[in-house]
Specification:
Elements: H1 3-13, H2 22-25, H3 30-43, H4 47-61, H5 64-69, H6 72-90, H7 96-111, H8 117-121, E1 125-131, E2 135-140, E3 143-146, H9 154-167, E4 178-182, E5 188-192, E6 202-206, H10 215-220, H11 226-237, E7 242-246, H12 252-260, E8 269-273, E9 285-289, H13 303-310, E10 317-320, H14 327-335, E11 343-347, H15 351-363, H16 371-381, E12 384-390, E13 396-408, E14 411-425, E15 431-437, H17 445-450
Parallel strand pairs: 7-11, 7-12, 8-9, 8-10, 10-11
Antiparallel strand pairs: 1-2, 1-6, 2-3, 4-5, 5-6, 12-13, 13-14, 14-15
Length: about 475
């Protein structure tokens, strides 16, 4: 029997089931199917490998373009028939109810984002990194590992890519070979294709938990200590403007999401991002997203334009997902003109580098402002700089919390309040260290006290265990 030949020919010639056959063909409720599948995998984890093998066989054997055009009910029927044959061939012990749940899970992958669908559902996966159609890596617990996931060919991977970018109304082709997009669940996607990707498409997916990390959860994970979290909580409630600095994958957006939960619910927020990924759990949030130019090079909407527009929308605070260019000038203006408590992230390795990066980004706006004036704007707009870092063992830490206190001459003055001190590394590469207070009390504590957000005197005692 040639399954390759019969798979689609049966779709058009097979008669529809009659009403009296409904009892045989009726599908269980989606919740029931999902429950059965989870229960099955929990009891027999090896079936995950069988599912991957089955999916790989479908990828390798069938016309995927035609497969993707099939109505779901036809696809489900054919996959069930194929699975039944597969179960007999491989001598898998599955009853009819389990086969139905197993087949529907495979169809979900096929109608979703193909071979990477299991990785998107895996809560232990933080990043999915596709290096052409031949290799796929994931990051679990801060470490990269190769997976068995593969695509049939480059055309197969490109169909998945086009499905992703189409969701947010964007495009990727030879004239525009790179794009930022997002998945329906908010996960961030970056794509590079030929000619900039020499060997074939490169896809990077940064997954986000359906339930955002809370500050309490970050404390549990030892990303920071309770006394540090107390300070940040009071700073956000007290409308202290701040920036979160760190490298790629260091946890900047995760921390920004956690901090946003302390914003009073009666305040109006406007968020501005290249690809909407923030998961703010607040009732009054207006989300805006940039837009790339169209095929004629027109219609681009940049972050700077959105910041200007946000100022006309009566925001109490503005949150910029990532400040990376000329919009830094307008952001500082907003922070200095009644929008205290605004927040953003920047790519930098140290708090001092973060202020230098902001200075450089303001220069991109083309304004004729002296460096000293720019630094003065930064010093008056931003009060807290939080440095996060992904350590070599994969753990993410808040390694520094510092306060900008003003200017001395033409230099921005800053002092550190809390820091993470590395102490040793064991044979497995795990890093051990302690969080310490420097003994310096933030100058903005007076403002917080007037708002009823006082912190104990010994909160910043350098001899106190954090």
């Amino acid at each position: 029997m040639s399954l390759k030949m019969s798979f689609f020919s049966n779709v058009t010639t097979r008669p529809r089931a009659q009403p009296n056959a409904e009892v045989v063909t009726r599908q269980p409720a989606p919740v029931e199917k999902e429950h059965v599948y989870r229960e099955l995998i929990a009891q027999r984890p090896a079936l995950l490998d069988e599912k991957l093998k089955l999916h790989e066989r479908i990828i390798d054997e069938f016309n995927l373009v035609s497969l993707e055009k099939l109505p779901r009910e036809d696809l489900v029927r054919e996959v069930r028939a194929y699975l039944s044959e597969y179960v007999r061939t491989e001598r898998l012990s599955l009853n009819q109810r389990e086969q139905l749940a197993f087949a529907d899970e495979v169809v979900d992958e096929m109608t979703g984002f193909g071979p990477i669908e299991p990785l998107l559902k895996d809560p232990t996966v933080n990043d999915i990194l596709i290096n052409t159609h031949k290799k796929c890596f994931v990051e679990r617990f801060g470490k990269l590992e190769e997976t068995s996931v593969h695509f049939k060919d480059e055309a197969h991977l490109m169909r998945i890519v086009q499905k992703i970018v189409a969701y947010v109304g964007r495009r990727v082709d030879e004239s525009s070979p790179t794009v930022d997009a997002r998945l329906p669940d908010g996960s961030r996607v970056n794509v590079a294709i030929r000619p900039v990707a020499v060997d074939g498409p490169l896809v990077s997916i940064r997954k986000f938990s359906k339930k955002p990390f809370s500050m309490d959860r970050l404390v549990e994970l030892n990303a920071l200590r309770p006394l540090m979290a107390d300070l940040l909580k009071a700073a956000v409630k007290g409308r202290i403007s701040l920036i979160i600095s760190g490298g790629t994958g260091s946890g900047k957006t995760t921390l920004l999401n956690a901090l946003s939960s302390y914003i009073p619910p009666e305040e109006r927020l406007i968020t501005i991002e290249d690809a909407a990924e923030l998961q703010l759990q607040l009732p009054h949030v207006g989300r805006m997203e940039t837009r790339p130019p169209n095929a004629e090079g027109k219609g681009e909407i940049r972050q700077r334009e959105l910041v200007k527009n946000a100022l006309r929308m009566r925001p109490d605070r503005i949150i910029i997902g990532e400040c990376r260019g000329e919009e830094a000038f307008d952001m500082l203006q907003a922070m200095n003109t009644g929008h205290e408590g605004s927040m953003t992230t920047v790519h930098a390795n140290t708090p001092r580098d973060a202020t230098k990066r902001l200075e450089q980004m303001v220069g991109m706006a083309g304004m004729s402002i002296s460096p000293a004036s720019v630094r003065s704007q930064i010093a008056s707009a931003i009060r807290l700089v939080i440095q996060v870092q992904r350590l070599s063992d994969g753990q993410r830490r808040v390694v520094s919390i510092g306060e900008i206190t003003g200017m001395e001459g033409e230099a921005i003055q800053m002092h550190e309040i809390f820091r993470f001190v590395k102490e040793r590394t064991d044979e497995q590469g795990n890093i051990y260290g302690t969080f310490r207070a420097t003994g310096i009390r933030p100058t903005f504590l007076i403002d917080l006290k007037h708002m009823g957000l006082d912190l104990p005197q010994n909160h910043f005692d350098p001899n106190r265990a954090l």
